[in-house]
Amino acid sequence: MGGDHGPRVTVPAAINYLQSHSETDIILVGLPDVIELELRSHKFAPSPRMRVQAASEVIGMDESPALALRGKKNSSMRVAINLVKSGEAQACVSAGNTGALIATARFVLKTLPGIDRPALAVVLPTIRGHTYVLDLGANVDCTAEHLLQFGVMGATLVSSVENKEKPSVGLLNIGEEEIKGNEVVKQAAELLRDSGLNFYGNIEGNDIYKGTTDVVVCDGFVGNVALKTSEGVAQMLSIFLREEFRRNLLTRFASLIAIPVIKAFKRRIDHRRYNGASLLGLRGIVIKSHGSADSLAFGFAIARAVDEVRGGMLRHISERVAQLPHHFKNSSSYHRPLAEERPA
Amino acid sequence: MGGDHGPRVTVPAAINYLQSHSETDIILVGLPDVIELELRSHKFAPSPRMRVQAASEVIGMDESPALALRGKKNSSMRVAINLVKSGEAQACVSAGNTGALIATARFVLKTLPGIDRPALAVVLPTIRGHTYVLDLGANVDCTAEHLLQFGVMGATLVSSVENKEKPSVGLLNIGEEEIKGNEVVKQAAELLRDSGLNFYGNIEGNDIYKGTTDVVVCDGFVGNVALKTSEGVAQMLSIFLREEFRRNLLTRFASLIAIPVIKAFKRRIDHRRYNGASLLGLRGIVIKSHGSADSLAFGFAIARAVDEVRGGMLRHISERVAQLPHHFKNSSSYHRPLAEERPA
C-alpha cells in the first residue's frame, strides 16, 4: 500500500512480474478493496499465485516510525513483514516509509546473530558495471564494528546474488593513505584487514563510480549524502544539457539528430533499473523500493528480492559472520532458525 | 613551486593575471633559477610588479605535512605564508600539498579569535548559479561548535566577496526533518538556529546542486566524500555520453552536429572555473589550488584570493565572530592584529 503511488504502481508491477516469472508467487498485502479494484482494472483476479492478504491500516510516508510501530499493528507493512517471519513469504518488498520499514522489520524479524544493526544496501552504476554501497541511511552513528559488519554483509550479498567468490570491499574515506580519515574509519580499516574479506583498502568518493570495488562500505550518514549528492549532480547536468540543446534553432536541430544518442544515454543511467535497496542483517529478506518508484522500477525491486532468496543470502551471511574473529560475535542477538530455513 | 606541474603552470597564470589586472602585484616564491627560466620562456623578467622571492626547498605532493612543517623551514610554501604573516603579501595561493599547506598556514598565521580550526571552502556550480561548501577535508572529526564556526565563516565569505547581506546557510544532513541526522549535526542545527545567521535548516545532498542555500555546512569527511563523489558521477556520465556518441556511424554523425552544444555544455561545467578553495579561519588569506590545475584554473585561484582581500573578508569574519553568543568565544586563540590590517 505504501510509497507515493500505492497499489497503482505496486499491483501492475506484481502482475508483470508474475506473468514473466512462472516460479514466483506474490502475496499482495493491504486494504483488500483497493487492491482488488486495482487488480480488476488490469483484468486480473486474486489467484493462488497472487493472493491478497488483508491489512486494515496504512502507514503514511511522513509518519513517525516509532509511532507507526507502536500504533499500527495491522498496517500493510507490518502484516507483510509478519508473513516473512512466519515463513509464508520469503521476502517483503515495500515502497513505504523507510524509517517505519526499518523499525518494523528490525522489531519483528530481529537481527542475525553477530549483526548489531541492519543496513541498507543499494546498487549503483559504475563505469565498469555496478557496485553495492552500504549503509545508505539506516545507521547514522556507526562504530568501527558496524562498518565491519556492513563489509561482511555487503560482500556476502554480492557473492550470493552475483556468484562472485571473493568480492572486493572498499572503505569509503577521504584519502587512500592509511593515516587519513576519522577515527572510526581508521579502526574499521584495521578490522576489515583482519576480517578475511577481500579488503581493497580505503577508497574515495570518485571510486564509487569508477567501480574500483564490488562493495563500498560507509556509515549511513556519509552514504546517504553521497547518494543524494550523486542524484543532485546528475539532475543538474541533465538540466544543463537540455538547456544547451534548447538554446537556439541550430542547437534544437542538433538535439533532433541526437535524440537516439540521448535516449540510449538516458536508458543507460536510468535509476529505475537500480531500484530496490536491500535491508541486510535481519532474519528475513526485506527490500525497500524508492517511494516514488513507477511500476517498472518496482518490478526491479521485486526481482532483487527474488535474487536474494534464490542466492541463499540469509544463510550465507550467517555462515560468514560465524567465521569472523571472536570480538565480532559479541552480539546481543540470539540464534534462532532463519526465515528461509523454515518450511514455507 | 607546488602542484603537479609547478612553475610551468603557476608562472604563466601569474603573468596572465598581472597583464589583465593593473592593480595587483605578484610575488613568485620558490627556486629563483627555475622561476626565472620560466619567466624568460614567456619573454618576461622580474619587475617591481612581479618579483621573485627565493625559497630553497620544495615540499613534495606526497610528503607528510608534519615532517614538511618541521623539516622544511625554507620551503616555497612556508616562505609564501611568511610573506602573508609579515604583511608583505595580502594572500598566498598554492597548488601544493594540501595537508602541508593547512598545517603550515595554521602554524604560521594562527587561527582568528573565536575560531578553533581552519576550514576549506569550495565553490560548486548549481542549477541556479553557485554555492559555497565547507569543510572540504581540513577537519574530519568535528564538533557542533566547529560546524557553527564553518557556518559563520562561510556566510561571511559570501557576504564579503558577493555582496550578499544575509547569505542563507544550510546544514548538510540526511533528511530535512529536525529529528534526523547524527548527534553532532543535531546539536549544530540548534547552534546555527541561535547564531543570528540566515539559517535555512537541514538540507540534503541533492540540495547542494539545486542551489538551495548560498552556503552548505558539513564536516570535512562528509564534504570531501560529497565532492569526490560528485566528480565521480560527472566523470562517469561524460564517459557514457561519449560512448553513446561513438557507438556507430549514425551516432558519430549526430556528435558532429552536436559539437557546439557539447562544447557549450562542457564550458558551463568546466571545473577549472571553480578552482581555488579558501582556507578560512586564519589570520591571513590562503587559497588552495587543485594540484592538477592548469594555468587557466590557477588564474581563477589567484582571482579568488584578490576577491577575498578586496572584500575585506578577514575583518568581516572577526567582526562576525565577535557578535556570536558567549559559548562560541571560548577559544584558545588570542587577539592580535590581522595581516590585512597591518601596513603592507
Automatic annotation (TrEMBL), chains A, B:
InterPro entries the UniProt entry points to: FA_synthesis (IPR003664), Phospholipid_synth_PlsX-like (IPR012281)
UniProt keyword Lipid biosynthesis present: yes
Involved pathway(s): Lipid metabolism; phospholipid metabolism
Reaction it catalyzes: a fatty acyl-[ACP] + phosphate = an acyl phosphate + holo-[ACP]
Gene3D superfamilies assigned: Isopropylmalate Dehydrogenase (3.40.718.10)
Documented EC number(s): 2.3.1.274
Subcellular location: Cytoplasm
Top-level taxon: Bacteria
Any GO MF annotation of the entry: phosphate:acyl-[acyl carrier protein] acyltransferase activity
Keyword line: Acyltransferase, Cytoplasm, Lipid biosynthesis, Lipid metabolism, Phospholipid biosynthesis, Phospholipid metabolism, Transferase
GO biological process, one term: fatty acid biosynthetic process
Pfam family, one: FA_synthesis
Family assignment from sequence similarity: Belongs to the PlsX family.
Purpose: Catalyzes the reversible formation of acyl-phosphate (acyl-PO(4)) from acyl-[acyl-carrier-protein] (acyl-ACP). This enzyme utilizes acyl-ACP as fatty acyl donor, but not acyl-CoA.
Protein name: Phosphate acyltransferase
Organism: Nitrosovibrio tenuis
Origin organism lineage: Bacteria, Pseudomonadati, Pseudomonadota, Betaproteobacteria, Nitrosomonadales
Gene symbol of the encoding locus: plsX
